[in-house]
Amino acid sequence: MSGTKVRTIRWVIQLLFLGLFVLAFIETRYPLPVTFQNLFFRFDPLILLIVSIALRAVASAFLLALFVIAATLVFGRFFCGFICPLGTTIDIADSFVRRKRTHASGLRPVKYFILIFLVAAAVLSVSFLHLFEPLVILERSLTLIFYPVATFLAGFVHLGSPQVYTESALALLVLATILGLSLFSERFWCRNLCPLGGLLALCSKFAVFKFSFGAGCTGCGVCENICPTGAISVEHARIDAAECIDCLRCVYECPPAVFRYRLAPAPSPSTMDLSRRHLIGALGTSIICAPLARTLLHQRLSDRLIRPPGSIPERDFLNACIHCGKCMKVCPTNGLQPCVLEAGIGGLWTPRLAARIGGCEKNCSMCGQVCPTGAIRKLDPEEKTYAKMGTAVIDRTRCIAWEQDRVCLICDEACPYGAISSLSETIRGTTLLRPFIDEQICTGCGLCEARCPIEGRAAIEIFSIGEERMRYDPYITEEKIRRRACEEKEEDLPAGFITDN
Amino acid sequence: MEKITRREFVKIGAGAALAALLPKSLMRADRPAGSGPLIGVAGGDNSKLVRAAVDLVGGIDKFIKPGGVICIKPNLSFSSNNDCGTTTNPLVVKQMVELCLEAGASRVIVMDHTIHQAELCVERSGIKEAIIDRKVSLVTLQQERQYAEIDVPRGTDTELSKIKIAKAIQDADLLVNMPVAKSHSATGVSLGLKALMGLIWDRGYLHRVALDQAIAELGTVIKPGLTLIDATRALTTGGPGGPGKTLILDKVVAGTDPVAVDSYTVGLAPWYGKAWTGNQVKHIRAAAGLGLGEIDPAKMQIRESKV
Question: B47 is in which domain, residue-wise?
Fold first, then answer.
């Protein structure tokens, strides 16, 4: 097979997987049943490893990732070379970049450093996965960057509300940095930084099949120059199996065609192993960083932090959530927004309900359906309505029904649960209707806050008062059903009637 | 739409002005009961109500010229199921769409500015079953650019002087208002006049001013050529968003006089457990005060039929 042909085939496979990833992203929308949308994540061994350790329970949704581990133990890091959609994105960026040839840099062990840092932090019950996990980074970039831009542009063609997110700049910075590092060397991220690459490299080292030099090498050095990960050393006639991503470039570019893909059970000797100093450094870093990232576990400081319905208890939530942004992508009201510092430094890009932008629709529980890790539980829409996210509180000094005697009551109108009653109140002989909240019925969905007609901050806002966060227990209880059934909505006659004639 | 309604408007306005000038006793003598606006009330089989009701007020050909562009404005505001009674029965809307196509409409636009998220409202309300032909489209009015500002000549500076209303109805030949009969926590009832708030951009603004008066003033600039109130069931408490009590009425009320249709429908059900007249509903009374129509059922020509 000619080199061009092999190269074309590899591009086709890579673009196919990238296309599949993007398709899964686009199809993460209301009201499709969730089928293949999380498949990429399910095959991700790094998520399996870190989430399982951080949560102290096997993240069984990700057990498919063991296939990737097993396959890597047989065939090497083909995942990086053929499947990883971030790798493909980097390849695409690379093809636009002209750079001076660079060779093996000393940064390569950094990926192991990051991997150990992630594992150690997870042992300390803090997940930093969101900062380094390649699939998560790409998924989040699609949500926070691609999606707002795409819907904005689509708005010129047909009607449709553009999605907006309160934090897209940092996400853009991360993606731009990863792609921009191509200026220094090809696949800079993959060879030096990616912890998933690091994990697969550890397996690949023991791969059953490896590339190796056959007879006839003229020492021309072509392979060394074109290897995207710098895995080849002509001088030692050796390919570092941990670094090799099975891209086949050397195979078809080598003038005398000396490379062979062969059964080679012995582990590949690697020059890039993590030193003891690095190991200690990584452990030390995690011991310092992990406690510092847990700044806002104490929710008394953030009573406006409303998590999606069915979110597990905050400590577990932060361990389980990989900050991928799927829930924010799928939220039909655009109400789920990325935290910046609302949930502390470790909660960057975790979802919160920004009810002023959009409330939580009664008949939707898509966020839990798409959450790949179960940080938001899979509830059916019925059970979701029992998962209390918080409670609405009226600021009577700003409410125009309370303060300016207007016939407003839009909050009452917007509430699908009948938690807001319009009750009359007489002051100095004048009877007017005022909104009152039944905190037993209010689920904290925030539809009232979204609709409140006053300018700026709403006069009715959701606070985390009374929020229910449970990891396993059912949200529907007999007590709640009884309460909801017998709670006849108390309501005085609307002001729109004239009663005295 | 504009021409017909304007002419009607002038007639009604002139009538009202005349009525105001005349002594009451004289006016009664002049206008015996039964010469006022036509109200068609069809009851019975929900799948035949619309045609029957429209026939009672003159038949569809009176309203639609072949090639006309028709806007139908049901209530799709809430993402709740049809049986909650918060949105217009899709079966009723579907019949109207069929009638329009039969009469030779070139385009039928079914539209509303929803309160809950549009996609969910459309899905839950079941309205898609009304989209039966390529000439029929479903539009949710969630974008500001779908609106154009107009003056409200008869509005007051304190309530409405300018307002952004849907461009689509400004271009259409006929606007058919198809609200659902329901209670409303602020305005008492939400019928045809209140439903016009689904055709403006900033509905919150109306709540910030004197709501009842503002609704009446809105009625001076948005004039449906035909109002069909879906009273197949009425949400008599807990409106407009529910949950509340629904009362099965199996009726559709039709008419060209927006005040008369509303006022008649007020009498069809007990709202909040009490009987009311149109005159006791502030925004309907305010609309009648602006000369938008007849509020006294005794002066309407009410035609009923069973199907």
Answer: 2-306
CA distances from A155 to A114, A162, B129, B165 (A): 41, 7, 26, 20
The residue among A257, A456, A326 whose CA lies nearest residue A32 is A326
End-to-end CA distance of chain B: 29
Which residue, chain included where needed, has tokens 């059964």?
A: A263
- Which residues in chain A are closer than 8 Å to B204, comparing Cβ atoms? 410, 451-454
Q: What letters, b where the CB count within 10 A reaches 16 and e where it falls short, cover B255-270?
A: bbbbbbbbbbbbebbe
For A55-62, the CB contacts below 8 A with 24+ separation are A55/A316, A55/A319, A55/A320, A56/A125, A59/A320, A59/A373, A59/A374, A61/A372, A61/A373, A61/A374
Rounded distance, CA B260 to CA B253, Å? 10
Is the complex ipTM more than 0.95?
Answer: no
Is residue B196 within 8 Å of B279, Cβ to Cβ?
no
**Domain with B160 in it: what CATH number?**
3.40.50.11440
- For residues A33 and A495, give the distance between their C-alpha atoms in angstroms, rounded to a whole number: 44
A412 touches chain B (CB under 8 A): yes
Minimum Cα–Cα distance from A156: chain B residue: B145
Q: Do B186 and A501 touch (CB under 8 A)?
A: no
Instruction: Encode B38-68: b = buried (16+ Cβ within 10 Å), e = exposed.
Output: bbbbbbeebeebbbbbbbbbeebeebbeeeb
User: Token pair of A386, please?
Assistant: 């029992």
List, in sequence order, every beta strand (DSSP E) within B48-198.
69-74, 107-112, 136-140, 147-151, 162-166, 174-178, 180-184, 188-190
Per-residue pLDDT of chain A (501 residues; tens, 9 = 90+): 677 888 899 999 999 999 999 999 999 888 777 788 889 999 999 999 999 999 999 998 999 999 999 999 999 999 999 999 999 999 999 888 776 666 556 788 899 999 999 999 999 999 999 999 999 999 999 999 999 999 999 888 776 678 899 999 999 999 999 999 888 888 999 989 999 999 999 999 889 998 888 888 888 888 888 888 888 888 888 888 889 999 998 888 888 888 888 887 777 666 556 678 888 989 999 999 988 888 766 666 788 999 999 999 998 999 999 999 999 999 999 999 999 988 888 899 999 999 999 999 988 999 999 999 999 999 999 999 999 999 999 999 999 999 888 888 899 889 988 899 888 888 887 778 899 999 888 999 999 999 999 999 999 999 999 999 999 999 999 888 887 776 666 678 888 888 875
Q: Where are the beta strands (DSSP E) in A184-332?
A: 209-213, 232-233, 238-239, 259-263
Helix (H) or strand (E) run with residue B204 in it: helix B203-208
Of the partner residues A362, A495, A498, the one whose CB lies closest to the CB of residue B186: A495
Work out how many domains chain B is built from and give that number.
1
How far apart CA B213 and CA B210 sit, in angstroms, is: 6
CA distances from A417 to A287, A467, A485 (A): 46, 16, 11
Query: Is A30 close to B120, i.e. CB distance below 8 A?
Result: yes
pTM of the model: 0.83
At residue B137, the 3 state secondary structure works out as strand
- What is the SS3 assignment for A473? coil
Pairing of strands B246-255, B226-235: antiparallel
Which residue segments constitute the domains of chain A, with CATH numbers given?
A: 3-263 (no CATH), 302-486 (3.30.70.20)
Return the residue of A nearest to B145 by Cα. A159
